[in-house]
Amino acid sequence: MQRRFLCFLLLSACAEGLTVDSSATSSAPTDPTEADDPTLEPAATSADSDIDDCTDPDDPGAPVVRHDSTPITTDTTWSCDAVHELEDASRLFVRNATLTIAPGTTVKAGDYSYLVVESSARLVAEGTPALPITFEASRPVDGAATWSGLLLAGNGRTSLGEGAFVEAPLPEPVTFGGDDDTHDCGTLAWLRIRDAGADIGATSAPAIMLAGCGTRTQVHHVQLDSSGDDGLRILGGTFDLHHLVATGVRRAAVEASVGWRGRLQFAVVLHEPTSDAASQAKVGCLELRGDLDHPTREPVTSAQVANLTCIGRDEDPARGNGLDLRYGVRAEIHATLFVGASASRLRLIGEETAGSMEAGSVTVERSWFFTPHSMAYELGDSWHPFPWSLDKTRSWLEDPDRANRFVDPELVSVSWLNLDARPTPEGPAAQVGATPGFDPVAYAGAVPPDEDNWLKAAWIRWPE
After folding, report:
1. Closest of 386, 367, 361 to residue 302, by C-alpha
2. Which of 3, 93, 156, 338 has the CA that lies 20 to 30 A from 57?
3. Cβ(221)–Cβ(436) below 8 Å
4. pTM of the model as a whole
């Protein structure tokens, strides 16, 4: 649901607890020219050799630093020599300061807790391949999200104009959106977010929300696991992101709207097999939206996506969408694999979306849609009809010039418990040609067809 006021109903904040570590740090701003490159890898740091300095979060005797709703207003570092805990129902605001979370740190999030970084602040949660940062529930419940997640706000342009806000029962509203498309919300890298997106009243929050973040914001090597709602929700702004993993996310793995302009490359989405909890959700891979109320208002959501692999369920085609385009969005989808019934379904909503397709502002090329069932389409809904017929839509997607395929891309394994998303070296997805404007790789999907399988890296935690 998209409105001028974006509402979350949250529980009231608990009042007391131990305050945060207030040791000051300073962080140099990120070079905006570096943030514009979605393939850039940050330099290695000495933190890789400091694993023995970090507390084992599973040790019952591990030191714990507890954080209540007392705002962070000075530059602060959370170190990995203690487990950091967000108290139940806490709203921890960061304002006029930078919160830095050291590599290897584990944050245990209490029920319905929320970490909110205002547009005057930054969050630097930059782990390393060997020492990822982990946010997870303090009392995990199998198959359920229990805490709210992360919200980072910035002053990048959105189609909502300046001063839009996320309305919630908080001490004051969180505003986002302005005229600074370079706004630095911080860095999220080698980061795992688990068990977020808890139901709060009639709605729920995404695991991570980035609202109005600009080109100096860096997002890469992030895993979103077992989110109760969307994994990553982007509201306007302009920045690139790469190397995302979404496992067991109950709604869209990535949702972008209200004027986001950016590139996404190398993302893997793995839908959870049907279970009592998961069967109630309509899972998704990529949901790209224009502005529902003002589809032509600039900036219009303009997403460029390459090398995404989405592995869906085969049980029920109606319980998911692979690609969901709405309200006049502009989108380019290249060299992407949608595999399985719940991942290969195409959803197109709104007359404005048909207009974007007619104008060539939406394109899907060199991509796979493969399912053991007949490929499913959803064209329009009760409020926002899509004017094309099914035959016209199929002809558009199957146009030979687009070079889309509807056969098995021949991945090594698409099992929930044993995923190996590499294309077989001699398979059809191993050589499709590079996508201009992205890291020039020749294969389709997120993983190369050789031994360089980044999904085996230690920072990713796979289902067991």
Report:
1. 361
2. 93
3. no
4. 0.88
